[in-house]
Amino acid sequence: MSVGYVYDPIYLRHDTGGHVESARRLETIMAHLEECGILPRLTPIKPRAATIEEITQVHRQHYIEEVEQTSKSGGGWLDPDTVTSPGSYEAALYAAGGTIEATRAVWKRHVESAFALVRPPGHHAAIEQAMGFCLFNNIAIAAKYALNVLDVSRIAIIDFDVHHGNGTQDVFCREPRVMYFSTHQFPHYPGTGSIVETGSGPAKNNIVNIPLPPGCGDTEYLHVFSRIIVPAVQRFKPQMIMVSAGYDPHWADPLAAMQVTVTGFARMTGIIKRLAEEFCSGRMVLTLEGGYHLAAQAASVAATFRMMLGDTKIDDPLGPSRRTLKPPDISVLIKEIRALHRL
Ligand SMILES: [Zn+2]
User: Fold this and answer.
1) Is the bond leading into 44 cis (omega within 30 degrees of zero)?
2) What's the CA dihedral at 114, 105, 279, 212 to 10 degrees?
3) Could you tell me the pLDDT band of residue 257, with boundaries at 50, 70 and 90?
4) Cβ–Cβ contacts within 10 Å for residue 8, how many?
């Protein structure tokens, strides 16, 4: 089965100036995928603008208008970290719409799995507030589309970005058809994501937060996957797995203090792919979130695609961590989360 990807130069028109979340992130990824021969092996999926009706499943109308007006009147800051330019509104509509189209292509089996290479990213965007470089919550909008339009009845969202996906959690904290997993450095931006935030009402225990101390590397992340995420997904039995793929847990990333390697991201992708094969006929949709070391992110995205394609050889040009942090012992934390979620 084929592997799809979404990309469009419209994503470069969200011009953030000298900001760390810049168009160069996507340009570097695309150049690297071309260079290492991966791009011709992938099936392109054409993005479109998400409709206002699709976006209002997640965000309030007045907030969508605020993003549009700020962007179209020349751009400006929507929050201390989040800036817009004249091209941002359309790029944001296409980032949400691109993730929707990736989801639709996977559900309809036009491709087995897909990765939406979009920006601005989405997982911090709250219901009526831009946050953390995010305007519209791409993965939440696409998951709502899957539930409401495609009639998918159970979705697992796995968010391995180094920051907690507060926006995604807010959208789904009372939604029993969605299970949300987040691994993130803690305490760290945006401050949410403690283990006791587990969802409420009919979605009690559908939010699984895994707040990690700084210094965690491949061993700690793989331990979290095998002891928490895998058994919880196996119990939930999703029909589709969606991934907030953020590459800022990489050891070279300037915004965080984790020690994951390119190989580590490949191994996490391999675990998620096996879960998708076990329960979802392979249906797996990824969307790009953070990742601020250009070369580390590009190599990690390439490694992710290689795993999706079934390659066995992964290139890790950056190698093992050169940070000097001693990996923390997270066995007590894992035990605590397993007990809380009865795993
Ligand atoms: Zn992040």
Assistant:
1) no
2) 40
3) very high
4) 19
What percent of the chain is modeled with pLDDT above 70?
100
Question: From ligand 1's centre to the CA of 2, what distance in Å?
Answer: 28
Q: Are 308 and 283 in contact (CB under 8 A)?
A: no
| Dist. CA 164 → ligand 1 center (Å) | 8
C-alpha triplet 137, 131, 167: angle, nearest 5°: 45
Which of 59, 124, 164, 188 is an active site residue?
A: 124
Residue 2 scores a pLDDT above 90: yes
Q: What average pLDDT does the structure give for the chain? A: 98
250 tagged catalytic: no
CATH superfamily ID and name for 3-340: Histone deacetylase domain (3.40.800.20)
Task: Give the Å distance between the CA of 288 and the centre of ligand 1.
Answer: 10
Q: How confident is the model at residue 42 (pLDDT cuts 50, 70, 90)?
A: very high
User: Can you list the alpha helix ranges (DSSP code H) found in the chain?
Assistant: 23-35, 52-55, 61-72, 88-107, 138-148, 166-172, 218-224, 230-236, 262-279, 294-309, 331-340
Report how far ligand 1's centroid is from the alpha carbon of 290 (Å): 4
Sorted by where each begins, the domain ranges of the chain are 3-340
Query: Confidence class of residue 21 from pLDDT cuts 50, 70 and 90?
Result: very high
pLDDT at 154: 98
